[in-house]
User: Which sequence fits this backbone?
């Protein structure tokens, strides 16, 4: 199998060199792909929007995940957008694809950002990606910097419970606790947090599914470069 890191680097270089598409040219390519499954048309459509993937991925770099991984997930979203796009609608492909690219990247971040996984409902996603911004805005607009009051206002704005906001705030405010940290008031080294965890290892069928997904994504990246 080709080296995936090398493919990612080549993907980024290719993205920055791809020419832009005029509106009618873009629509023509989308029609050829939808009606005739023209692979060359799909390749041109995807290649012209690779830089959009990189731009959107860059907005999420502060979550501490590898940029190459964010770009790869964004490309998955771009391919999904191409599969679902309806060229007869009066909308640019870039506008349509932006939602799919962002959603794919955000789902990846939610799966990988923290040892303690957060919820994946739409409300939990909104909380995860907007908590810092809303908290900063509220603290600038009010003299009441009491945590509970800020949490209550954020909960109302997003549509989640105040406890959900407090929990997410705690996750985003500090690093994950080491599983080897001692448990007990006296930090008794004989017991660690890991000793109290239920085995969360993936089942065999889940492992196979993840492997297949990874190979499929690598294949998509290779196709985008040929």
Assistant:
């Amino acid at each position: 199998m080709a080296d995936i890191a090398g493919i990612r680097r080549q993907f980024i270089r290719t993205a920055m060199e791809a020419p832009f598409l005029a509106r009618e040219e873009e629509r023509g390519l989308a029609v050829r792909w939808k009606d005739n499954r023209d692979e060359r048309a799909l390749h041109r459509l995807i290649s012209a929007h690779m830089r959009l993937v990189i731009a959107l991925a860059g907005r999420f770099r502060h979550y501490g995940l590898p940029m190459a991984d964010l770009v790869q997930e964004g490309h998955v979203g771009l391919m999904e957008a191409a599969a679902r796009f309806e060229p007869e609608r009066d909308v640019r492909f870039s506008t349509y694809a932006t939602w799919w690219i962002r959603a794919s990247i955000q789902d990846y971040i939610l799966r990988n950002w923290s040892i303690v996984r957060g919820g994946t409902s739409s409300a939990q996603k909104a909380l995860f990606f907007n908590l810092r911004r809303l908290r900063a805005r509220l603290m600038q607009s009010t003299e009441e910097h009491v945590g509970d009051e800020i949490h209550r206002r954020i909960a109302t704005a997003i549509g989640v419970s105040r406890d959900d906001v407090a929990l997410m705030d705690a996750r985003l405010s500090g690093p994950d606790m080491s599983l080897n940290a001692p448990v007990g008031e006296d930090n008794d080294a004989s017991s660690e947090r890991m000793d109290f965890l239920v085995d969360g290892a993936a089942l065999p069928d889940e492992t196979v599914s993840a492997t297949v997904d990874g190979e499929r994504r690598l294949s998509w990246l290779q196709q985008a470069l040929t």
Observations:
- DSSP finds ten helices and no strands in the chain.
- The CA atoms of residues 183 and 192 lie 5 Å apart.
- Residues 196-209 have pLDDT under 50 and may be disordered.
- Residues 4-115+204-224 form a domain with the Four Helix Bundle (Hemerythrin (Met), subunit A) fold (CATH 1.20.120.1810).
